[in-house]
Design brief:
By secondary structure, this protein is of the alpha+beta class. Helix content is 29%, strand content 22%. The protein has helices at 12-20, 48-59, 64-76, 122-132, 140-149, 160-172, 250-256, 258-267, 272-286; strands at residues 40-44, 98-104, 109-116, 137-139, 196-202, 208-214, 235-238, 242-248, 303-309, 314-320, 324-328, 334-337, 339-342. The strands form two sheets. An eight-stranded mixed beta sheet has the order 4-3-2-6-5-1-11-12. The protein has a five-stranded mixed beta sheet with strand order 7-8-9-10-13, covered by helices on one side. The termini are far apart.
């Protein structure tokens, strides 16, 4: 894809402001280490096939953005993965609503869709927003009509398996929703299925791209949008430094601007493992609502941050022990353990 569109040099002013706010003792120059000899792709644990496809395409000289989006398309189209795309768990009305965003490092461009219905591959719509509009984000029916205008097919995304799960929730857990009574606003938090796939890619030319895509929180209030389509929260790419994606409780990642924080940490010298752990510590510190805390006063939810630096070094981190992430460094894909803050 051609580098371009200065009209969408995203967040340039914001980046300058963030740099100005860093203490004088910090290294304000972006690190620019040499890229690896082979392509590297990392993803959430459901991304073994995604990283394999991404590296295969980068080895064939495909653009990094096309490579990572092609990778997550595997999961988006898989009805057995109930956290992403086709077969994803629906909102509280039984309707599947999808979110996605992508960023192309060389051109400093981004595209995003949120709360889109009936379109199996939302990451492809986000890519079209990046390439074929003067915008960064389209939402709801506007995003759907944009996808249809570009020849995408409207489909029913609710599989029988997802429908059964939703009916079970409606029949047995209908009091455990997102509508808070005055009392519930002070106490009580019901954990429900979340899930996403993020995929980051880096080629030997030092070109970075990333994509995050999800069906969001199961049984959410219709129209709820998590971090996955939000640039700086669910995904951030800086071609001079590195990239980060996120999965888990989207509200916590939005409040912390999680992915942007991790990339800025790497800009100022942190290795990927330290960068993601610092990002997670910020989320823990910002989680003060009693509803969201366990008996030990820690977050009663999970967030995972995934970081890929321009030299090919990578790491992922979770609040709690036991999470893994997928990585392919030019050969086969494998799962590695995340660094973490707490044991259960």
């Amino acid at each position: 894809m051609k580098s371009a569109l200065s009209r969408r040099r995203f967040l340039g002013a914001g980046a300058a402001a963030a740099a100005a706010a860093v203490p004088a003792a910090s290294n304000l120059e972006a690190i620019e280490p040499a890229p690896p000899a082979k392509p590297v792709s990392i993803s959430s644990a459901n991304g073994l096939a995604a990283t394999n496809r991404a590296v295969k395409l980068m080895n064939a000289k495909e653009d990094t953005l096309e490579a990572v989006i092609s990778g997550v398309n595997i999961v988006e189209a898989d009805p057995k993965d109930m956290s992403v795309g086709y077969g994803g768990l629906p909102n509280e009305d039984g309707v599947v609503e999808l979110d996605s965003c992508c960023m192309h490092g060389p051109s400093c461009n981004a595209g995003s869709v949120a709360s889109i219905r009936d379109i199996k591959l939302p990451s492809r719509v986000a890519q079209l927003v990046l390439k074929r509009t003067d915008h960064v984000m389209l939402v709801g029916d506007g995003a759907r009509r944009f996808a249809l205008a570009h020849g995408m097919k409207a489909e029913n995304l609710l599989t029988d398996a997802a429908r059964r799960q939703w009916l079970k929730w409606k029949e047995n857990l209908s009091d455990k929703d997102d509508w808070l009574s005055p009392k519930e606003a002070e106490t009580g938090h019901e954990a429900r299925p979340t899930g996403t796939i993020t995929c980051l890619g880096l080629n030997p030319a030092g070109e970075l791209s990333g994509v995050t895509t999800t069906s969001g929180l199961a049984y959410k209030i219709p129209g709820r949008i998590g971090d996955s389509p939000i640039i700086g929260a669910g995904l951030y790419v800086d071609n001079d430094v590195g990239a980060c994606g996120a999965t888990g409780r989207g509200e916590a990642v939005i409040i912390s601007c999680g992915s942007r924080i991790v990339v800025e940490n790497m800009r100022h010298g942190m290795d990927p493992a330290a960068a993601v752990k610092d990002g997670l510590k910020r989320i823990v510190k910002q989680t003060v609502d009693p509803r969201l805390l366990d008996k030990k006063g820690r977050p009663d939810f999970e967030v995972v941050l995934y970081a890929l630096r321009k030299d090919g070094r990578h790491a992922a981190g979770s609040i709690y022990k036991g999470r893994q992430y997928a990585v392919n460094e030019g050969g086969g894909s494998k799962l590695l353990d995340c660094v973490h803050l707490f044991d259960r």
